Amino acid sequence: MPTRFERIWIQGSGRFLPGAPVDNEAMDAYIAPLNRISGRIKRRILAENGILQRHYAVDAQGRTLHSCAAMAAAAIHDCLDQAHLSLDQVGLLACGTSGGDALMPGFASMVQGELSAPPMQTFSSHGICASGVGAWESAAAAIELGSHRHALVAAAEMPSRLFKRSRYAARDYDADFDAHFLRWMLSDGAGAMLLTSDPRTGEGVRLRLRFIHQRSFSGDYPVCMQLGLTPDRAKSHLDYASWREAEESGALFLRQDIRLLPHLFDIGVHEYARLAHEGWIDVPRIDHFLCHYSSERFAPVVDELMHKAGLAIPRERWYSNLTQRGNTGAASIFIMLDEFLRTRTLVPGERILCFVPESGRFTVSFALIEVEAADSTTDAQPVHVPKSMLVDAAGHGGDDLIAAPHDPSQAPRELRHLLGELASIWHDYRSRAWRTPVIRKLRERRFELTDYLRWMECWIPQVREGSRWMREGAASVRAPFEELAALIQTHAGDEQDDFMILFEDYRKAGGEVGDIDWLRRNPGGEALNAYLHALAATPNPLGLLGAIYIIEGTGQRIIPALLPLMKAGLDLPADAFRFLEYHGANDEHHLLRWLRAVEIVLQHDHDGTGTQAIIDTARRTAALYLMQLDHVVMS
């Protein structure tokens, strides 16, 4: 749930970008290619990220010209000058960074010292790109609670010190691609803003903060961007006998696993769609979209996902200064917002949406700002979300590339409300499934042969029942859904012998149970089986389509991600994984048939009961499927 604010205004902003802009040719003097491979990586990365110039707080000899704390202090002075406020009127200083000048104390304390600021409350937010938003939300919450009238927020980054050629000498410049990648992506800078509960009145406009939303998915995915771990993330730099040994092992290189990055935007746009469905974001009313991304290559990716979700913000409303200012991590959104505010003429009623995804271990952040006339009342004005807006937003949402296991962008528009609801259910189910014991074992490379055999012993009798409850459901279909019965029968036929493939895989993997009838479902499987058989026996069990959505979606979206981990961790022949291979490749075709079945339901679902049955059954099936996963392994 986003944090809603009723009496927070942005009274000023500021930025500091060290030195003169450095273009792509001149950057070699600061961040020199290490070898021929490094030079090729540089050309490739710069061609994709679109950055034309950036700023560095080091000189060409690698000497530090400005500390990270000093840059934050400079941005704060710029902000206070614009806000016409003195430092001694500020009660809270909240700062975010990926890494300041010292490991301890907190970055906010270092910035306060740099400012020679009077005693005040401080808050340090540590992370990567979203750490600045964490500081922003903390400061806003403190003002909202009445603890302070004015608070300063600042974020600064200085990655250039990590990219010196000399730092790679310990490994004879033999650094992997993940360690090279960010050298050509990141640069230095700082941004700041002043928050207040007592805004200026008079002529012009002012900015009211409406909400901030942050959500981390670190429990779902491995580390994507990190500093301080070995390349395999198995050992910390603190585990070595000396800093030199840690450096020689590569534990002090800043790394990005670019293979994981597409998941970040998948998650981010789904979270955006969820906020729209819940009424926090009225998409047609977003006049300006400030999107932080590390590369121009990702802008069309975000745009396409939004379009597929039916929640696109026209590109002419987007604003980014990446090409001219570079990627300054946690400071980027503040630098971007400051430049935007100083170069645009805003009109009361306009809304500014800020989006900050963080690739560290996947966090997404949003902030909504509303422009209002400076002579408006400052009384609390809660944002009322009319029910009609919620329905409209949901009616345009829900895309498979967000999280759902199908492509609703190719489906008729009348399907989109249902697909939006199902996408929300899927998003929660996928996240929880990724944290079940069996999948955690796979992700942590602890999955053993006994786990695989146990998994199949639970699943074989469950899969065996699949075609049975489908046929029961088809037999229960009545007018006017007769056409639906044939589709379910066809699907049941496809499923009929799947359990034998799985049983043969089990035997080839060393399974000792020789008679398939001796296998029993685990408690979760028993509950799921009983539920689906009971539902199939009711007249017109349209909700079964919700169950199929979850079950087939698992085969199409989750299983393909797990299969490589299974193969890598188990010394088994390829034909011991035929069932998983088959479902990863064929469930997409099954889900196209599912879309056709849903269309049949909607043709006759005049009161919405069929649609609601599909949604409710999908939610219950997801819960029971998770129970089944929980009981595969218990540790």
The CATH architecture term of the largest domain is: 3-Layer(aba) Sandwich
State the helical fraction.
40-55%
- Tally the helices: 20
* Number of domains as seen in the coordinates: 2
Estimate the mean pLDDT confidence. Answer: 87
Main sheet attributes: strand count, strand direction, barrel closure: 11 strands, mixed
Determine the strand fraction and express it as a percent band: 5-15%
Shape: globular
Q: Could you say what the CATH topology of the largest domain is called?
A: Peroxisomal Thiolase, Chain A, domain 1
Secondary-structure map:
Elements: E1 3-4, E2 9-16, E3 22-23, H1 36-49, E4 53-54, H2 68-83, E5 92-97, H3 107-115, E6 121-126, H4 131-144, E7 150-157, H5 177-181, E8 189-196, E9 205-216, E10 225-226, H6 243-248, E11 255-256, H7 261-277, E12 288-291, H8 299-308, E13 318-319, H9 322-325, H10 332-343, E14 351-358, E15 363-373, H11 387-394, H12 416-433, H13 437-443, H14 449-475, H15 482-495, H16 498-508, H17 523-536, H18 544-569, H19 578-604, H20 609-630
Parallel strand pairs: 5-6, 5-7, 12-13, 12-14
Antiparallel strand pairs: 1-9, 2-8, 2-9, 3-4, 7-8, 9-15, 10-11, 14-15
Helix pairs in contact: 2-3, 7-8, 7-12, 12-20, 14-15, 14-16, 14-17, 15-19, 17-20, 18-19, 18-20
